Amino acid sequence: MRILREGDAGVALAKGRGRVAVVYTYRDFELESGTRVKNVLLGVDPITDEVLVVPAQSTAKIRAARSSKDETVEARISAELEDVIALIADRYDANPKKIGPAIVRYYIGRASESPRLEGRLKRLAGSSLAECTKRVAWKVRLRSDQAAWLHQLADQDQSVTQSDLVRGILVAAKEDVLDSSTPSRRTRELEAAAIAV
Prior knowledge:
Elements: E1 9-14, E2 18-30, E3 36-44, E4 51-53, H1 56-67, E5 71-78, H2 79-92, H3 96-111, H4 115-125, E6 134-142, H5 144-156, H6 162-179, H7 185-196
């Protein structure tokens, strides 16, 4: 990949004007959401000062700024569920601080497509392991759509809170990873998620 530098010249397509010369310069860039990304290399028309192109090398910084709009969900969990996270991390040779949130994101993604899994998570939210003394305030970063699903589910079913659902997810992960003797599609996908974090 060629790394462009500030001051490099290039060409971009401008609506209604065709090919236009651009000069690459670092400046702040505002996303559609209103988020301002600081110090991004952009291809700018030197005459109109219009941004005409975002080079490939700037996409990672922009993507990171978009993901910073993720939401943090706080759940109260027990020390026993912290142990579950550590055991799963050990099984997959992963960092417990990273695998725990990855597990939650994985199960939310799957449950949002499967009423059966959704029902299982609600049921497990009331299990004895999920109900252990909740000593730990645990934070999980979720994409806004995942946080919205979790919030909506808790709103629809007054018998469970978001925190309950997170605990139900951790119990489901324990059953799927630590209690099952045969690998399933879910355990293989969780292993892939563990490798990715």
